[in-house]
Amino acid sequence: MNKGIYYYVTIATDQEGYHLLHRQECKRLPAKQDMIFIGTLYNLNQALSTARINFKKVKPCIKCCIRYSSPVIRESVRPVHHFPQKMI
Length: 88
What we know:
- By secondary structure, this protein is α+β, with helices and mostly antiparallel strands.
- It has helices at residues 44-54, 62-69; strands at residues 5-10, 19-23, 35-41, 58-60.
């Protein structure tokens, strides 16, 4: 069973007008008075959807959200032929 993660959104915006979405263990998490707890959620998509209910422009923190949510691909991608090659 998946364990819920505490997510927070910054009240202040960055230079582009975006609020940042952080996980509880983020090292860049601002002070308590500068953020809003949005809930205990199970993945980044749920957290972004919940945050965007109250804030129009929200983006995930690169250090805590993107790092843990993106899959790690260690193999090179090889094309797959779904249709047979032309006969000569």
